Amino acid sequence: MTVRTPLMLALVLLAPTALAQDKAxxxxxxxxxxxxxxxxxxxxxxxxxxxxxxxxxxxSGLRTGGVERAMTxxxxxxxxxxxxxxxxxxxxxxxxxxxxxxxxxxxxDENDLRRVFNERIAIVDNNVRTASYNTVSxxxxxxxxxxxxxxxxxxxRPVTAELAANIRQRHAELVRTRRLQHSFETQRAExxxxxxxxxxxxxxxxxxxxxxxxxxxxxxxxxxxx
Length: 226
What we know:
Layout: H1 7-20, E1 28-34, E2 37-41, E3 53-57, E4 63-67, H2 73-106, H3 110-154, H4 161-206, H5 210-219
Antiparallel strand pairs: 1-2, 1-3, 3-4
């Protein structure tokens, strides 16, 4: 039975029993918080199993141990995510280290490295242009379908099921294409950041003179973006 009793009083009550049974296992008190009150008992009820608690010797009154409260499901999930993130960060750091080492071996100079980046830029820029063209085309087609539906309603005729289905399909395609375009534009912006970062690391590893780097950069024009 759990009794809300001051700790010192609980120790006084348990002391005679503890002294009388010298060979019995040392008794201890469990103390935890329950509804804002400190509760101590020589038995741990089921509802307190997951609570943070202290273990106190019934003989000496000294703290002998303690248990942190059990994590909630959300806390366990968050902890697992944090562990996974640390593992991913460590893997990314190792990949970066290997990439840095590979750059020194793979590219003779900065112009070599720039040529690789220019190829990547051209691919992503082409994706952006294609998605942009498709977005405009789908929007114009959707506007035309909506105008047709509006004209039918103004003429007192119902919009056909086929036309309504075409409008829904064209709208869904437009939404998907816009998302794709946004994704490509984000990739392009991230590529600029990546290139700047890698070029700085490459120069640091090579010990390239900044003035020479600027001169080389001026001699290697970047591809134009439409």
